[in-house]
Amino acid sequence: MKGFEIYKSIDELDTESKYLIHKAKEAAHHAYAPYSKFHVGAALLLDDGTLVTGSNQENASYPLCMCAERVALYSAVSQHAGKRIIKMAIVAHKKNHKELSAAASCGACRQVMAEFEERQQKPFEIVMHHTDKQWIKCASAASLLPFVFTKDSLNE
Ligand code: THU
Known about the structure:
The chain starts with a strand and ends with a helix. Helix content is 29%, strand content 24%. It has a single domain (10-149), classed as Cytidine Deaminase, domain 2, CATH 3.40.140. It has a six-stranded mixed beta sheet with strand order 1-6-5-4-2-3. It is built from four helices and six strands; from the N terminus they run E-H-E-E-H-E-H-E-E-H. By secondary structure, the protein is α+β, with helices and mostly antiparallel strands. Tetrahydrodeoxyuridine binds at residues 33, 36, 38, 40, 56, 58, 65, 67-69, 105-106, 109.
């Protein structure tokens, strides 16, 4: 796969993606989102089969809110240094809503994902809920952020 693919339903996705989506949904239960009431869950699969999850954590000082994706990514590298990320799934839903919302990762998370990919020298897939039960699968973090800012820019 190059770039991204859109799937009409979860049934069309591979088994690993379905499993990660399930885990991301569970992770969303641990979101602390009293301000936005937007609950996000992220699940990462590492190259040895380890699963790491994260959920968004908000704060009364709004700019301190942390996205689910970055909670999961920072947790993975802190607890499982040296292991590569293979795949990531992200889901979101409004408080007390069963139906999923679109879970397009924000630009800040895409920037962080891109540097994780660069650090591990290997792309990882990203599966995000789209709209109307559709799913987007991206081949890499790089494909989510063209013209990315990297450490190379600092050295030019
Ligand atoms: N949020 C995420 O967790 N991930 C994203 O990529 C987009 C936004 C969270 C942050 C905040 O707690 C809430 O969703 C509303 O923006």
